[in-house]
Every structure is written in structure tokens, then in C-alpha cells.
Amino acid sequence: MATKFAVEGYSHSLRRELRMFGIDVVVLGPGAVKSEIWNKHLVGAPRYDGTRYEASMAKIKTMMQTSERTALAAEAAGEFIRTIIEVRRPKTRYVFMSGKLQNWTLPTMLPHGWVDGMIGNMLGLQREG
What we know:
The chain is mostly helical. The chain has helices at 2-18, 54-70, 74-86, 100-109, 112-123, and strands at residues 27-30, 93-96. The chain has two domains: 2-97, no CATH class; 99-129, no CATH class. It has a two-stranded parallel ribbon. The radius of gyration is 18 Å and the shape is globular.
């Protein structure tokens, strides 16, 4: 997650720096896309066995299995990217995913603390005490 966040931040900076040359930098935020990545199903997950993260990792694995089943076709992602490339004045950011309202729109509209709390509840990562 941190790497994706860093690339997005770098892209925003690059877009501002290259604007005077007429170069558009567009951030594409794809959701789950059918690919070989799903064959890696949490390879490192056993390292969490016996830790406080074991139950959360089990929930994440279940979520990943659902994402794999509902992932968008690679061809659809390619077509989406092609249409963006052909736009005369592209937006600065595009999101391509199923369930965009609950997975993208609402989390970006709500305060970070609320989203953190919802994710914490969903994964069993509530504060102690």
C-alpha cells in the first residue's frame, strides 16, 4: 500500500512540474483485475499464525478470494485505459473497479478516522482498552 501511495504522490508532483510542457500525468487506480497475481494468495500469511494478526489475515484472505471472483476482465481494463488515452483533456485521476461507490467514492468522502474505524471493525483491528 505504501508504494502505491508514494507513486500516486509522485505522479501528482510530476503532473504539476510537466504542465508547462503540455504533458498530462494521469493517475489510474485500478481495482481487482483478473491476472496471475491471484495465484499468489497471501503466500506469506502463515507467518502471522499465532500472532495478534492471525484472525485479521484470515479475513483478508477471504476478502482477496472474493476480489478474485469479482475481478474485472483484463480486456475491460485495457479498453478503459485506451479510452482515457484518447480523451483530449483527461482528468487527473481515474478509478476502475467494481463496487466503486462503496470501495472508492464513500471512503474518499468520509473523514479518515471514520474509514480507519470501519476497516478496523471489519478486520478485527480495534483499539485495546
